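Incident log, structure service

09:12 report received: a user says their structure output differs between two submissions of the same chain.
09:20 pulled the input from the user's history:
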Amino acid sequence: MQANTIRLIEDYYAAFNAGDMARFLDLLSDDVVHDINQCSRQTGKEAFAAFMSKMNECYREKLEDIVVMANKDGSRAAAEFVVLGEYLASDEGLPPADGQSYQLAAGAFFEVRDGRIVRVTNYYNLGDWIAQVSN
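09:34 re-ran on a clean worker, output below:
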């Protein structure tokens, strides 16, 4: 179970890096819970897809140095990685976009059930990101 969960999370990030949103979303349960960094909680694959559409409009990101860990029964996992990004279009409530580059340490926590991701909780330092794109 642990190895299957690690492979699932690795596939999730590989799909993200490839820009394969169909595959990326297919790895989620229909009732996925998404805890957005320093923001709100959304529920459902449709809400997650809408969030990703907005993200892909405003940001171009690639994740590197991905390390995935899982508990023995595979029901929980965590990942640590570096986000290399470009701020493409202004996002509401954030500084104006002008193609600024950024690099952030980030992490995520997952719950897994029946081979699908049922919760994703993302964390990164928003203050650091704002400082990087404001210079």
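09:41 both user submissions now match this output. Likely a transient worker issue. Closing.
09:42 reviewer note: The chain has one domain: 2-134. The mean pLDDT is 97.
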